[in-house]
Amino acid sequence: MELRATETEFCWTVRRRRYWRTCRRKYFLHYYASQGGFDPYAPRSARELYAVKKGISLDSYVRRLVNLAIRECFYAPVDEEMPETPPELFSVAAHRAGWEFQQMLEGKTPLVLWELLQSDFSPAAIHREMMEKLDVFCNQVTCNAWKTLAAIPPCDRRAVASPLALAIAELKCYLVPVIAMRRAGEIWMLEGAGEEDAGDEISVLGKFAAAQLWGTPPQQVRSFILSGDDGVFTEVGADADVSEVLRGIRRDVGEMCQMIGDDGSVREEDFPANAKMCGSCVFRAFCRH
Ligand code: SF4
Hints:
Layout: E1 2-4, H1 14-22, H2 24-33, H3 44-53, E2 55-56, H4 58-74, H5 89-105, E3 112-113, H6 114-117, H7 123-143, H8 145-150, E4 157-158, E5 164-168, E6 171-175, E7 177-183, E8 186-191, H9 199-214, E9 221-226, E10 233-236, H10 242-258, E11 265-267
Parallel strand pairs: 2-3, 8-9
Antiparallel strand pairs: 1-11, 4-7, 5-6, 7-8, 9-10
Helix pairs in contact: 1-2, 4-5, 4-7, 5-7
Bound molecules: iron/sulfur cluster (SF4).
């Protein structure tokens, strides 16, 4: 299969890095073969790949719901009649889960649970499992990370766009910050995308973001992600070497761009499959390795 790489703007994200480093065929399917699949008149393969690309696992979706609930509650105006009563994470997250799930069933949003793409899915069973997981995770976060976050005074909460586009020289990158705050002269950022294995990159991009948004020196910026196991937030990239991380990103980007021909073409066979990663890969039905 040969496609054009020039139809979408190139930008670096932690997901792009993960796919590039784990399975390049997956990278090709996600970033190139699904191009234009949002168009109902696009070829069927592009439409199906796009649907899978926009999909999300139940666990990731629950984490996304909780991150969005944290963001909504953290930046909610203080209730002057009950200033000591912060909004409840579960009710905010459950409200979103309810209407988004309905939209998924009606095909009104590109966002969809992978579980709903299975031929034998049961909406009621998936909904029940989703709400149970949401209840457990919200309880964990409410008893841990949220206790700290809810106590941050409004004057120390820093508004931040999400997703957040950053320009590092000529390279466009994206972060997905949940919230940002000032803590003892530092800026702390809670990142919503990526795992601990991308912690150094998340931390370095957080430093660039804080410098560009608030003029904060890099040594005064710390990044965190929310742990899915116990609802605490974990610092990432505390010892990241900024120069080394930037070199790594540029090396990856250089290799990614080398795969694009002078005429803007990309060929599937140039992106080798990594059969060791097939276990839970959602592209298995489309992968011809
Ligand atoms: S099925 Fe395996 S080889 Fe194919 S894209 Fe997925 S991980 Fe890569």
